[in-house]
Specification:
Elements lengths: L2 H5 L3 E5 L5 E12 L2 E8 L12 E7 L5 E4 L4 H19 L1
Antiparallel strand pairs: 1-2, 2-3, 3-4, 4-5
């Protein structure tokens, strides 16, 4: 899915490991240190372990210009993204 496509839509559908579709609401897009991240809220209730539990993906560009969602496997990168999101939420509350 390209950036343009999901910026215009708040709902996207991704496939799980078994090719089952899961709908997500894009709740936030952040750019941190030159990389982009998407915060997605699963809409299929049976797919979530906890209610309102968001998932975070890094948006990686491909050579052909498309963009893909990638898992964040590095703990430090994960914590940096979570901290930036929490800081954004804290600023919004003030």
């Amino acid at each position: 899915m390209t950036q343009k496509e999901f910026e215009n839509e708040n709902i996207i559908t991704l496939l799980d490991d078994n090719d089952n579709p899961i709908d997500f609401e894009v709740i936030e897009l952040l750019e941190i240190n030159g990389k982009r991240y998407a915060f997605l809220l699963p809409l299929n209730e049976e797919e979530t372990a906890e209610e309102d539990e968001a998932v975070i993906f890094r948006i990686d560009p491909e050579e052909n210009g498309d963009e893909v969602f990638a898992y964040i496997e590095d703990d430090e990168e994960w914590q940096m993204v979570v901290d930036a999101y929490n800081e954004l939420l804290f600023e919004d509350e003030e």
